[in-house]
Design goal:
5-stranded parallel sheet, 16 helices, two-stranded antiparallel ribbon, alpha/beta, 3 domains, Rossmann fold, 9 strands
């Protein structure tokens, strides 16, 4: 993957607000706007230092119908109610301190007052280090913990190509478009949960040292789970996992997680789907088996690109995942079972499996 700053764009598409840290004139704005257009998004650039706090937080308005005051957002924000909008907050370290609290809900809840952004809205930011920014100041921990912090890489290849093409700077041709990655969330959520259960001190950070940007909290661990799932869904986990981990929970906590991931034995999915290897759920195997359902889905997704997947293989896949769901792993197995339906729309499990499948789904969904 030659796409510059791919981790930043994966995190943005995973729904995690991200900030690109870099020097002056290194194409942060240009590349972010170009990528937004490339994936069919409308970009809105907001520079906090050029606005008053009410421009982002809203203006108090007395609603005579109810007798209450409510915060009315500025007109430009109305567009964020529609699909495929990208709110890009630039020069964040130059924002006055009173402008930063209203941005917290933009970054985390995707809302301003009562205005809730469309579910597809991407929110990201960029900044120069405080020492390079006009009236710059460090970001507060409450803002930092809501963001993936990315060290911006100057896209030199695209820049040279654009110079030779009269200033027509290209968008990366192999830019990853992130689709549905929900079936991978139980895997990464389970791995993080297992790590934090064994090392409770990693769950939260009580004191943030000056200059620290990324640190573990329940919120940032969840953000990391989303980003790692998104990266794996587009086949870029190996390239991005170190950057994403360091930029969301910090290098120390991220290293602990990756050591755990590497220690978990890889699944021989082919042996499992052929029946050569039997899946047995025990207390000592639970952490490893959490990732098995998503591994099966990924394997079948790759397999169907080259061959017609035999019914017997699909039967075995469903049986293994139902077995896991019946043995205390429904949160990992059920999303992956659901992911098989659109992949193999003509497949119907045999009656004996369909009955077990139905009971599992009913139990998880709370259906009698």
């Amino acid at each position: 993957m030659s796409c510059p700053n791919v981790s930043y764009f994966i995190a943005c598409q995973a729904g995690v607000s991200s900030i690109a840290w870099g020097g002056v004139g290194v194409a942060k704005n240009a590349l972010i706007e170009a990528v937004a257009a490339h994936i069919g998004y409308v970009a809105h650039i907001f520079i906090p230092s050029q606005h008053a706090p009410e421009d982002i937080g809203g203006i108090p308005y007395h609603d005579t119908a109810t007798g209450f005051c409510r915060m009315v957002p500025m007109e430009w924000m109305h567009d964020l109610l529609f699909a495929k909008r990208w709110l890009f907050v630039d020069e964040l370290t130059s924002a006055q301190t009173q402008m930063r609290p209203p941005l917290l809900s933009c970054f985390n809840e995707r809302r301003v007052g009562s205005l809730k952004f469309h579910a597809t809205t991407i929110v990201s930011a960029a900044a120069n280090p405080p020492e390079l920014a006009p009236n710059g100041s460090p970001l507060e921990p409450s803002i930092c913990n809501r963001l993936y912090h990315h060290d911006w890489q100057f896209p030199s290849g695209l820049w040279h190509e654009g110079l030779k093409n009269g200033g027509n700077f290209p968008v990366p041709s192999d830019f990853p478009v992130v689709g549905d990655f929900s079936f991978l969330l139980p895997k990464w959520g389970g791995l993080i949960s297992g790590l934090v259960r064994n090392k409770p001190t990693l769950a939260n950070t009580e004191k943030v040292h000056e200059g620290t940007l990324a640190f573990p909290t329940p919120r940032s661990w969840w953000n990391l789970a989303k980003c790692l799932a998104a990266a794996e869904s587009v086949g870029l986990l190996d390239e991005c996992r170190a950057e994403l981990g360091a930029g969301i929970v910090g290098t120390g906590a991220s290293a602990e997680l990756m050591a755990r991931v590497d220690a978990i034995a890889m699944h021989d999915v082919e042996a499992i789907l052929s029946g050569q290897e039997k899946v047995v759920v025990t207390d000592s195997q639970v952490d490893r088996l959490i990732s098995l359902p998503s591994a099966i889905v990924m394997h079948l997704d790759e397999l169907r690109k080259d061959v017609n997947v035999e019914t017997e293989v699909l039967d075995r896949a469903v049986e293994v995942m139902v077995h896991l769901a019946e043995n205390d792993l429904p949160d990992a197995a059920v999303p992956s079972l659901s992911a098989l339906k659109p992949m193999f729309p003509k497949y119907q499990p045999p009656a004996r499996l369909a009955a077990r499948y139905g009971k599992v789904v009913s139990a998880v969904m709370g259906v009698a």
